[in-house]
Amino acid sequence: MMNVTRKQERLLRRALSEWEQDGTLSNEEHLRLAGTLKRVTLDWQRLSRYAFWTALACVIIAVGSLFADSEMMARIIEFFAFSSLARIGLPAMLAVVFYLWGFSRQRRETQWHYSIEAILFLGVLFTAIALWQLGERLDNGSGHIAPLFLAGCAVYGLVGFFGRSGLVWLFFLLSLGNWFGAKTGYMSGWGAYWLGMNYPVRFIFFGGALLALCWVLRAMLQQRNLYTTSKAMGLTYLFVALWIMSIFGNYDIDSWYGMTREALLPWALLFAVAAVVCIYISLKTDDGMLRGFGLTFLAINLYTRYFEYFWDGMNKVIFFLILAGSLAVIGRYAEKIWHTAERRAKSD
């Protein structure tokens, strides 16, 4: 018997019916396979995931509330005022405890996936606190914080890789992006440009490089269950940077105020081309993630351009009618291709 959710059961029964109609399955095989499906009344796996996510969100809110409580923070600072090393060592020790606890549970009880992720996340949280306190201890006014992010990358990368934890790996990629931004900012003297690039342009290359590495190391990342997280973060860095570029271009704030909309149009077109290419690749490879990113950021691009060019000058009804008509034409074209492919498959 195969335990499936209501949605999975509906999809599988529809597929079995279509296979029977096409002659791929006989009626007896259809009935035999359909009889192996057992609908579960509640998706306990999803409930477990949502419960742990909510618990982690509550922990984050609790920590944020702690820092917002000036009286409580004053007491904590007073308690640890005798030693700055204690303010670093205690959270570091707690982080190590949580990491060891998570790895221990992973070896003994591999089925408790979400609880292990939650334990490792607490290690991430205390690692961040320890690095923050270390930065306070070593601060000399230079603003060179990149080494702290690099230290976080080392810790999160090792834990995420060997622990096969997508959540910890996510923080590794976030720390890596923060390190890149802080390092290039420090090297440029915290100016607007580094090697002629402002921050969004830098992160276009950063996101592209991350996606390229993700593809090159695909087999290894898939083996460690880290490929999906890596690809999603690479796409996020790339498309968010392209979106910001479509608004500001490769200009600093002072120069941007004097720019015309036409000067920024090439960046908007580049953003649109990237989204369309992403959608095209997704249709060729049936990649749901690429399709989602492409469609989402294409819509963001259209809405951004609308507010830039047509919010004051064009009637809203006309704008959305034009948009609806263009999308309908694309949809009709896609529908023709779909039916043509379907007829060819049946004739084959």
TrEMBL record:
Keyword set, alphabetical order: Membrane, Transmembrane, Transmembrane helix
Superkingdom classification of source: Bacteria
Residue intervals passing through the bilayer: 47-67, 79-102, 114-135, 141-159, 166-182, 202-221, 233-251, 263-283, 290-311, 317-334
Identification of the protein by name: Integral membrane protein
Keyword Nucleotide-binding: no
